[in-house]
Each structure stands twice: as C-alpha cells, then as structure tokens.
Design brief:
With 302 residues, the chain is of the alpha/beta class. The chain is 37% helix and 12% strand. α5 links the parallel β4 and β5. The longest helix has 17 residues.
Length: 302
C-alpha cells in the first residue's frame, strides 16, 4: 500500500452494508506517505477509539494534539456494527494518520443472531482493496457477566479464523478470561500472523504464556502508570522491550496524572516516560523500539 493510487472496491455490490460504509469504500482513500518518515521521535498508538461519541465535540483538536505530541499513526479498532461508519469516516478524514480494524467486541454481541453481524463484517473484509489492517477488537470478557460465555467464545473463534484466512494481525480483548483466551487460541497458533494482547495488565506467568504465541505483542497503556499497578514489575521481570507496543484505549484508562478523565493519544508520552523508567533507557529508545515492533507486525498496511 501507499502511494497516491486511488483505492476502490466492489463494496457497492455487497448486500446488507450501510450507505455510509459503501460511500467510504467508494471514495478515494489513498494513503499517501507522510512528508516525514518514521523516526525515533514518533510513536504509534496501536489502540484508540477516537471515533466514538466522547470525541464528537473536539475530534479535530484531539487529532492535532496527537500529532503535535508525535503520533505518526492512530490505529482504530472496531467495537460493533453501529459505530463502524463513524470509525471509517474518521479514517477517511485523516487518511495519512488513521487506520481501521474490523471486529466485534465481546461485550457488544447482538442479543440475537450475532453470526449474521459477523457475516456482514466478513463481507466487508473479503471485499477487494478493503482498508482494514487487522481483526479487532475481539476476544472474551467475563468481567460483568458470564451468561454469554459460550457465545463470546464462538464469536472469537470465527474472528480468529478470519485473521488466519486473510493474513491479518489479531487484536485481542481479554478481561477475566485469560484461560479461555489461551485455550481458544491454541488450536490456531501455527496459523496466525501475530497480533496484540490489548491492554495487558496481568501477572508474569500470564505474560509468559501469552508471549509463547509467536508474533504476538503486549499492548501497554495507562495502567502502567497507576500507583498500585504491578505491571512495571512484570514488564521488568519477563517482558522484553521487543515484545510491547504503545496504546491508549482512548477514551478509557487515561494515564496518571489524568486518571479518571477522558484519555487521548496525546498522552502516550506519559506512558513512554514510565516505560523508559522501567526499562532504564531513554524515551527515544522506547519510541523507536515500539514503533519498530508495530511496523513489523502490521507491515505495509501501516
């Protein structure tokens, strides 16, 4: 990808796709390379939801602050079908900065017939020249409710298969579901093309088990800056710098001193500063290595 050639697709011929989504695919969404190349003073936010309603009043300002802070790419994971047009609109508005993913979040499964939603998603994913760089955010979340555990596992299975079929990274949400995540992934471990365990905050043992999946990285966000977080010691103990990427999960999980407020990509340098302290290197090294890690995972799709 890259260059100035218009990217088009036959999305108009796919049934059950919203008009706004069809318009996005039909428009020229060429990805021109930015004027300045990747450098050690730039970062990639690998997980941010700046397309959601929380940013409707000042999205342009949020994007400007992100770029001023050093953002070179903002990667936008999907949540559900209803918000997908807004996600794609945001990527269309900032085509040199934002990249879309596609996936159904485990807590957003429709009450009935979620597999029909997944079929419509795969129709988009299989369209020629589609813009999606990864499958996400998908996974299992048993924090609030375990009633739909089997449905979540089924949906996760289907989307893991997409990642293998379409040779895309898998962006995984896991909450109170470490064992279920690992057990569901294991049959596919030789077929997958890497991914990110989003918003990691687990134990050293869990980190080691997740990093046994070749090509997978841990997404590190604001949690690492929290006063009582055990994540700094886990990272120092058993997670190489080459196996992490930066993320905000904006608007959630803002780093200290903004904890409890709306998060945004411009806060990534606060996470970088904490990681520099943990790994005993300069912030520039953290930015350079995490950028290289993301580049290796997503390749030319960035």
């Amino acid at each position: 990808m890259g260059g100035s050639t218009p990217r088009t697709t036959e999305i108009a011929n796919i049934p059950d796709v919203s008009h706004r989504t069809k318009v996005f695919f039909a428009k020229n969404i060429s990805r021109k390379k930015p004027h300045r190349p990747f450098s050690t003073l730039m970062f990639i936010d690998t997980h941010t939801h700046i397309y959601t309603d929380e940013f409707n009043d000042d999205r342009s300002e949020v994007v400007k602050r992100a770029m001023d802070a050093g953002a070179q790419r903002l990667l936008l994971p999907a949540i559900d079908e209803a918000s997908l047009p807004a996600l794609l609109d945001t990527c269309n508005q900032w085509p040199n900065l934002c990249r879309p993913m596609i996936g159904l979040h485990p807590t957003e499964l429709p009450e009935e017939d979620f597999e029909s939603t997944l079929k419509r998603f795969e129709n988009l994913l299989s369209a020629p020249n589609n813009p999606f760089i990864a499958i996400g955010e998908v996974g299992i979340d048993l924090y609030w409710d375990t009633a739909r555990r089997d449905d979540q596992i089924r949906a996760f299975n289907i989307q893991i298969q997409w990642a293998a079929k379409y040779h895309l990274p898998l962006i995984i949400h896991s909450r109170n579901a470490h064992r279920e995540i690992v057990d569901t992934l294991l049959p596919y471990r030789e077929k997958l093309h890497g991914g990110i365990f989003h918003c990691f905050g687990g134990t050293a043992e869990e980190a080691q088990e997740l990093l046994a999946f070749q090509g997978f990285l841990l997404g590190i966000g604001g949690i690492v800056t929290f006063k009582k977080s055990t994540l700094p010691s886990v990272l120092a103990q058993c997670v190489p710098l080459e196996r992490i990427v930066l993320e905000t999960d904006a608007p959630y999980l803002a780093p200290t001193p903004h904890r409890g407020k709306r998060n945004e990509p411009a806060y990534i340098p606060l996470i970088v500063a904490k990681l520099a302290e943990i790994y005993q290197v300069t912030p520039e090294i953290i930015e350079a290595q995490t950028t290289a890690n993301a580049q290796q995972l997503f390749g030319s799709k960035l």
